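Quarterly update from the structural biology core.
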Amino acid sequence: MKTGKAISLIALLLLLVTAAVPAHSQRRITPVQPKPGTVPTVKVEEPAFTGQSNLAERRDAQGNIVLVDTVTGTEWVDTTLVNRKAKMLYPLLESVSIGVDIWDPAMRIFGQHYGLIGFWGELSLHNRYKPVFELGFGQCDDTPDDRNFTFRVPVSPYFKIGLNYNIFYNNSPDYQFNVGVRYGFTPFKWSVTAGTISDGYWQENTATSIPSQNATAGYFEFTAGVKVKIWRWLSMGWTARYHALLHEGKSAFGEPMYIPGYGKRNSHFTGSFSIIYTLPLNKKRPGGVNTPEGGANKGDRP
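Predicted structure, tokenized:
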């Protein structure tokens, strides 16, 4: 009897212990209030990178290159290209070019009565900045269609100095688009011969002429042109020019209608066509240069 009570008491104690252990093992969580003025941080797992072969490129509204993972749709801005300065692919002393402007000789074949020939030299810095010096000769012997006099300018020199800027400076030097400025100056002489003045009252014509006059003129030009390689070191160049007079000498007989290196004084536009020889100063071309064929240039210059 006593044994049965003892077993019952032990069983009751085991039951109480079994019920108390799970309740005691539960964690108690005490809520924590964030400090005033702070925002709780939440750690977000970034999507896994699925590999270089799954990347595509696009540009955002700011012109930055954005890499897109085509599997996960994740995007990254290519920070290696953000705010990167333009790199000069070509050396400082890239080449020297000399050219012959045959525009005026060609125009004389088609009936133009003024102009002669021009020569110029250009130093290419990084295939980008190009100081230019021009030397030429002008001449005029022109009788306007609606006039009865002949305007003459003997062979006279002109000089121009300026700078070209190659917009495609990181591409092949064989194909260029240049914009530039010039300042031109010329000392020359001019005269008018065999002119007549009609007297409406007496119905008489009086012959007149203007003796040789010394003159000077200075002018500026804005230029835009292309250069295209035709064979090895030979190229052709076409240039459009807008110009305006800055200053000129005064004469008691008026203003000359032709100015060497400028052309007719009442015309603001002209052009030039040059045959160009280019001497490379650095024959090794940089790798990765874009060429018109679409490939990267990895070889030496011809």
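Helices lie at 2-25, 103-109.
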